[in-house]
Amino acid sequence: MPWADIIGQPIAVRQLQNALKQNRVGHAYLFFGPPGVGKRTAARVWAQALNCQQGVAGDACGECRSCRNILTGNHPDVWEVPLTGAHIRISQIREVTRQAQFPPTEGCWKVFLIHNAEAMTLEAANNLLKTLEEPPGETLFVLTTPSIFNLLPTIQSRCQQVRFQPLAVRDIAEFLVRQNLAGPAQAELIANLAEGSLLTAQELLTMERGAVREEVIDLLTKLKTAAGPQVLILTEGWTEGPRLKILLPWLALWFRDLLVWQNTGDVKLLINQDRLELIKEQAQIWPRPERFLRIIQEAKRKMERNANNQLLLEVLLLELTSMRRT
């Protein structure tokens, strides 16, 4: 798997390639960015490029024995630390630091990939820090995390930081079409919902085939006349984490279309072009969709902070009904 297989991260890829080309490889890297943007895949490609038997110009061939073994998790010099349960335990990191004392047996570098590094317990993080401060030769650590602020400042300072950006809509849509996961129209719709995450796009694609969009439209149709207890009943079936995670971007995309229609009247700018008549109708019912878009964004932030999903959705729908035109 060469660098060309990494989607939509040219700056991060160039940073790592240049380090290898210029023989300025550090001993610890921190890959950070939203979930589903390629951090884990890039970490494996980085391990391949460092140990490739045929690669040139800072890349991996993806075909040699070393590259194949890394891809399948069978290379003796590349270790991935699994997240079992809620935390990465100190016993796991102690094993990492013990193994780090031995030189590589087959490759040029011994590489330890610690995904979800924010899940390390404080004891585990402090244990790893000792090794990061005095790293053995030809040993390299890659930590991945959604945010650098989830890690100890001392660990941050010992690592070279590589930022992974949210993916562009076009990159996600092209990937879905290229992998025969969706046709162009469906891929464009899913990519707009995915908020820059290929992982979210794949989850949405699975649920789109279950007609989730029609369920959301049905919910909005019922909200036209619902009031009080009727609104609360409509939350049934949506408050589970995965379902609510899907509902919020669908609502945001729908109200985005209402806002676009109200301001431009141009059907070509709509995402849900096939539901034009309903958009026209609901654009009359919800006169200030931009207000609700802000409310959805705030709901997403609260959900990320583990808010009560039932309460969150009840408040969201009640606020929506309070803004409709009567």
Give the rounded overall mean pLDDT. Answer: 88
CATH architecture of the largest domain: 3-Layer(aba) Sandwich
Strand content: 5-15%
Largest sheet: 5 strands, parallel
For this structure, the CATH topology of the largest domain is: Rossmann fold
Distance between the termini: 57 Å
Give a topology summary.
Layout: H1 10-21, E1 28-32, H2 39-51, H3 65-72, E2 78-81, H4 90-99, E3 110-114, H5 122-133, E4 139-145, H6 153-158, E5 160-163, H7 169-178, H8 184-193, H9 198-208, H10 212-223, H11 229-233, H12 241-264, H13 276-285, H14 289-304, H15 309-322
Parallel strand pairs: 1-4, 1-5, 2-3, 3-4
Main attributes?
326 residues; alpha/beta; Rossmann fold; Zinc Finger, Delta Prime, domain 3; 3 domains; 5-stranded parallel β-sheet
Can you characterise this structure?
- By secondary structure, the chain is of the alpha/beta class.
- It has 3 domains: 3-163, Rossmann fold (3-Layer(aba) Sandwich); 167-201; 211-322, Zinc Finger, Delta Prime, domain 3.
- The chain is built from 15 helices and 5 strands.
- It has helices at 10-21, 39-51, 65-72, 90-99, 122-133, 153-158, 169-178, 184-193, 198-208, 212-223, 229-233, 241-264, 276-285, 289-304, 309-322; strands at 28-32, 78-81, 110-114, 139-145, 160-163.
- A 5-stranded parallel β-sheet has the order 2-3-4-1-5, with helices on both faces.
- The longest helix is centred in the last third of the chain and has 24 residues, at 241-264.
- The protein is elongated and about 70 Å long.
